[in-house]
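Archive entry: two folds, one per protein. Generate the first.
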Amino acid sequence: MKTTALPRVDIRRRRKPFILDARWAPPVTTGGTRWPNERIVETSPCRRAACTIVGATGGTVKITLLSEDSIRLEPIPGQMTIEAPTAEQSFSAFHMLASGLAYCTFSVMYAWAESAGLDAGDLTLEVSWTFAQDPQRVGRYDIRFHWPSLPPRRLDAARRVATMCTIHATFLQPPVIAIDGTTGPLVATAIPDRASA
């Protein structure tokens, strides 16, 4: 199957990367051992900050559109890429939504791996979704990760970490969405300075 690259986006220019430290990774309480009784405690301010990654990948990933209702995310060096199996397949709003969920999940898992001394360079995620009706919406997401170098004893901990991303929490407790509109000529408005507020 021929893969056609869609326009590249350099995410490193869009957000400031952070240095991985204990503030960004879920703390691990071990009780004197790193396993088998590992317990993940979520107190990270990453829930309030943008999820970004640095390190071996340079903070970039490749999103591959597997179908109309599934995507794969994998770390790559260089610029972020979005690829589709054919030039005719479009990157839909549903692909964007799933890509955000995948990227946020990957970022949290990558940060945890760095703090735990694990190699996340071979971690990939696939996200698929199904629709529900009345109203029409995404009714279910399935996230599967493949991490060949992860020690089997760490698999349960990795699953728990995967649930700690901000977008995952947003779906579990949906935000209020306010919609407004105007008519007539567009009038430029100043963006409030949040620092002085």
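Generate the second and append.
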Amino acid sequence: MRQELKREISLLQATSINMIDMVGIGPFVTFSIVIQIVGNNLFIWAWVFGALTALIDGMIWSELGAAYPLAGGSYNFLKEAYGKNGGRLMSFLFVWQTCLQSALVVASGAIGFAHYFQYLVPSLNWWETKAVSGLVVIVITALLYRNIRTIGKMTVFLWAGVIIILLWIIISGFTHHRVDYSPFPQAGETMFSWSFMLLIGHASVKTIYSYLGYYNVCHLGGEIRNPGKNIPRSIFISIICIAALYLAMNFSVVGVVPWQEAMHSKFAVSLFIEKIYGSRMAQVATVLVLWVAFASLFAVVLGYSRVPYAAASDGNFFPWFARLHPRKEFPYVSLLFVGGLGFVCSLTLRIEDAINAILAMRILVQFVAQAIGVVLLRRRNGTEHLPFKMWLYPVPVVLSVGIWLFIWYSTGPAARLGALLMACGLIVYFATRNTWLAKRKMT
């Protein structure tokens, strides 16, 4: 008899999972990178653009997540949207790219953790830094090797640390304001030019990376209580709260550390605290940043470990991924796979390359195809049965597709990697689909 996941995650826990996934190490390690890319005081608009992208796309995720609250998120959305044949192909491609890019997400968080750890131990060499990143992945996987009820409680505890460090940064910046900063064009600057839009697009690859995770709750759809209401609520609460915190954090930091100086620091937040409170408190702040990075990785590995499980349970992936732990009832094979591949990638990649590849790999198969899928589902099934209907339809769909294609183009060479990955997935699917179909008929 097939085992079922239990709905044990509350709205608070679901929102906590989303928020700690979103924050992570992203805003801390990309802070200076975004300023470097834009090269002037208008860098803040890359963060605004990232927030708008998340909010628009969040409407699509909310409608789909509420309608199809099952483990695997996009796997189920694509399967339902594209019909019997197309759905199996699209859902397979999603799992195919997820198995690879989930490792990149885990690796980017672990590498960022190790880089920021160097503020505390500057003497670390390359090998020692890689050892730190690998150890983080191992610890995260070990902590997640338990039932979902315990994990739900752990996420709220980790979430509290995320809020503490962000509020500390924001309050400290506004109470120790030293530098005048304006987010609006100065003499000779303009926001209405193609060159500026290209800069914002390139910089937004990094800011959107820092917002990713607002949909993590959809991957855990089979474990969410009252999913028709709680999935959309957790998505919108997460996006709005994190966007407000990110923007406030940016204004706080450049109100103490001039953006011209912050752009050249790998530890901008620690430098910010050091200027206000001294080096001892900067070390405390760094520890809290590392807490945030650790908490995010916890949520990331948790969410992604459910995707191969969902596909395998549906007969569209290697069957052993569908195995649940006999006593603790969680997909332990899928968890070990995501953690193990993430460990390998954390030892071999650079964080800049990982961030670009993460977006390039998922945009076409997941974000763009999923947005189009909403239109297909509405035409086929209508909207009367939907627990949540996106506002201003079809405007969010049109905007989402346009924005994601713009971001995909902005990833540069990584965009070709994403297209190549999809092409390889097509070859694998058509070469093996008869095997999957035969296995499905036998079960």
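Annotation attached to the second fold: The domain at 11-437 is CATH 1.20.1740.10 (Amino acid/polyamine transporter I). The first helix runs from residue 11 to 23.
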